[in-house]
Backbone:
């Protein structure tokens, strides 16, 4: 409806798909602000994001997954291990990794892609593959 109401402005839009994605994202964010961030939910949100709230890293499942991740990384060839650890555990960029390891930036990216593929395969054996993105996010 928003596109239709603003159709006169569409002549200025050069990339309609990007325009549509931006409108959709902004509308979704607006809805979340209206529904989630209300006065009624304020106490719940403050409690949820408080320091005392249990961290996922304290759960046995997380510890098991973390152990499996480290086992998967330990099974990688040494260069891939180092690239993965520098990227995910130390937060270095590919340029920084390349400088530190005396390799090219492209090689660093290639090692990372291969490492992630290998780790996904390893974790899939334990049916943890859907949680892989979460683990990599937490490791950063």
Residues:
């Amino acid at each position: 409806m928003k596109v239709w109401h603003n159709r006169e402005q569409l002549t200025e839009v050069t990339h309609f798909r990007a325009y549509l994605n931006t409108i959709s994202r902004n509308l979704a964010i607006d809805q979340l602000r209206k529904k989630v961030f209300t006065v009624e939910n304020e106490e719940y949100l403050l409690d949820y994001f408080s320091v005392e709230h249990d961290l996922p890293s304290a759960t046995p499942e997380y510890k098991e997954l973390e152990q499996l991740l480290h086992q998967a990384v330990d099974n990688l060839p040494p260069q891939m291990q180092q690239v993965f650890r520098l990227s995910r555990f130390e937060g270095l960029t590919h340029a920084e990794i390349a400088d530190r390891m005396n390799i090219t930036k492209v090689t660093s990216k290639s090692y990372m892609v291969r490492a992630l593929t290998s780790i996904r395969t390893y974790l899939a054996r334990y049916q943890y593959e859907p949680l892989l993105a979460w683990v990599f996010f937490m490791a950063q």
About this structure: The two ends are 39 Å apart (CA to CA). The mean pLDDT is 78. Residues 16-35 form the longest helix (20 residues).
